[in-house]
Write a structure and sequence with these properties.
4-stranded parallel beta sheet, globular, Rossmann fold, 11% strand, alpha/beta, 165 residues, binds iron/sulfur cluster
């Protein structure tokens, strides 16, 4: 019964509740390969308080993580390792491409560097910059949380069968 004496009830869907808790407990796995990795470490410092978003529990095991943050240059020898890490994560899992090099190869337009990690695995959110500022990373995380709540991440859509990658 409400304070004004009226009665009523609240309805929701199970997936909306699950997504609410899921978006507020994203556990990142940092895959830092170069200079962007340093900026990612700065983002995870207490100054930026990632615990506000429930994303401060950094794990270095793919079994315990659901957000792969790829920060830096991914060369062709590193690409299968990154894909292997991604494949070991349980669904639903999310991927953030951190910085210009991860998103497009950046200034390294050469055969030995992946020209975007989305040529190797599905990416949910791209954070621009060289390197991105911590505020940009937080903005990217908040956009990702919105996608998780709506059930629009790549792995959520794949689970529903609306995409097949
Ligand atoms: S985007 Fe810039 S800072 Fe990040 S890895 Fe590439 S060169 Fe380094």
């Amino acid at each position: 019964m409400a304070k004004d004496g009226s009665t009523g009830y609240l309805t929701t869907r199970v997936d909306a509740v699950v997504n609410y808790f899921r978006k507020n407990s994203v556990w990142p796995l940092p895959f830092g390969t170069s200079c962007c990795g340093i900026e990612m470490m700065a983002t995870l410092c207490s100054d930026y308080d990632m615990s506000r978003f429930g994303a401060e529990v950094v794990r270095f095991s793919p079994r315990q993580s659901d957000l792969l943050i790829v920060a830096g240059i991914v060369n062709s020898k590193m690409a299968p390792v990154m894909r292997n890490v991604y494949d070991q994560m349980a669904d639903p899992k999310f991927v953030m491409s951190f910085g210009a090099c991860a998103s497009s190869g950046g200034i390294f337009n050469v055969y030995s560097v992946a020209q975007g990690i989305d040529t190797i695995l599905p990416v949910d959110i791209y954070v621009p910059g060289c390197p991105p500022a911590p505020e940009g990373v937080i903005n990217g995380l908040m956009r990702l949380q919105e996608m998780i709540q709506r059930g629009e991440t790549q792995s959520q859509r794949r689970e529903r069968g609306t995409i097949t990658i």
